[in-house]
């Protein structure tokens, strides 16, 4: 538990989420009333694949890694979730266990709405299922796009599109963030490409004036040039 945010600061911060901002006022109020702020230290696991559902989360500060590991320790990284994005909604719908692992890349502050509170909220107002359905549908669209790009696009446009997606907070409206705190190794895992391929593509983008590369950071210098790299016809 942490007191890093006052009630007003928390409300303003959550309003940066397009999903939360578009939700009915009554739902927003009930989520604020039911949720609590929790801290997670860098490297600490939030939940593991197969764990029971414990509710819905929103990243307020820090980074959360979503992925899975094989029995040999090989990691599949699906996404790195930054502020202010929600996650954990799948289990809300099917009442089954967690689909993947989630742990802190850096020290994190999370807004957590427990499962019991969500169940009570939705029992009182079943119409609010629609809002959570929109959150799930948004994630499903992103997943379908990623599958399609993996099957049909060369490495360079896939990298460019993922960088633009991350800079835009996975579809949130508004200006692109210019600095992405993502190591090249993480980008390689998310796109199922080799570390060498990622480095070659990023170096090419840098020579084109689209990016600047720094340790564990990628700065988008010219978003239009990066968009040009993303505009490659599917095979």
TrEMBL record:
It comes from the Bacteria. Residues 19-122 form the Cyclic nucleotide-binding domain. GO terms for cellular component: cytosol. InterPro entries: cNMP-bd_dom, cNMP-bd_dom_sf, Env_Response_Regulators, HTH_CRP, RmlC-like_jellyroll, WH-like_DNA-bd_sf, WH_DNA-bd_sf. Keywords: DNA-binding, Transcription, Transcription regulation. The keyword DNA-binding applies. GO terms for molecular function: DNA binding; DNA-binding transcription factor activity. Coiled coil: none annotated. SUPFAM superfamilies: cAMP-binding domain-like (SSF51206), Winged helix' DNA-binding domain (SSF46785). Residues 153-224 form the HTH crp-type domain. This is Crp/Fnr family transcriptional regulator.
